[in-house]
Amino acid sequence: MTATASATFDALAGLIRETLSLGDVEIRADQLLFHDLDFTSLDLLDLLFRIEETLGVQVAEGTIYRLARGELPDEQFAEKGYLTAEGRARLMALLDDTPANFFPERIHVQTLPRYCTVGALVRLLDHLRGQAPGQQEPPA
């Protein structure tokens, strides 16, 4: 882990503890937000607000979708609200630290954050921080 990633991890771990009122519980990069840490959708919104307020990084809705899709045309990535086989493979490649068995065959596009680990969120924050001001992912 680079020094930047380590600093981001430490800050994010603290924000996760605050969001979930966990005290001094250990937070690890391999933990899944929704599975291991029992996040709810409201917890994720709370965490994203804390990230923006504390770290100055806005994670816009649809960011994971856009990063996983990349240059792939939308109709090849998802169809009728569900990832295609190619879309699923791209999501799994993006979130490569999430065990493959956590990805169901059919993944609804609204559920993509459910497959994120703490480490994936650290990488996302570092990616967004590396962009010039005004270049952050636009809202979906």
Describe this structure in words.
By secondary structure, this protein is an all-alpha fold. The protein has one domain (3-129). Helix content is 47%, strand content 3%. The chain has helices at 3-20, 41-55, 63-69, 74-77, 85-94, 118-129; strands at 78-79, 82-83. Strands 1-2 form a two-stranded antiparallel sheet. Strand 1 and strand 2 form a beta hairpin. The longest helix is centred in the first third of the chain and has 18 residues, at 3-20. The model is unreliable at 132-140 (pLDDT under 50).
**Whole-number radius of gyration?**
15 Å
| Average predicted confidence as pLDDT | 91
Number of β-strand runs: 2
SS element count, helices: 6
How many domains comprise the coordinates?
1
- Tell me the span between the first and last alpha carbons: 30 Å
Task: Give, in spatial order, the strands making up the sheet with the most strands.
Answer: 1-2
Strand content: under 5%
Order of helices and strands: HHHHEEHH
Low-confidence stretches: 132-140
Largest sheet: 2 strands, antiparallel
Please state the overall shape, judged from the principal axes of the Cα atoms. globular
Helix and strand arrangement:
Layout: H1 3-20, H2 41-55, H3 63-69, H4 74-77, E1 78-79, E2 82-83, H5 85-94, H6 118-129
Helix pairs in contact: 1-2, 1-6, 3-5
Concise overview:
The chain is mainly alpha-helical and 140 residues long.
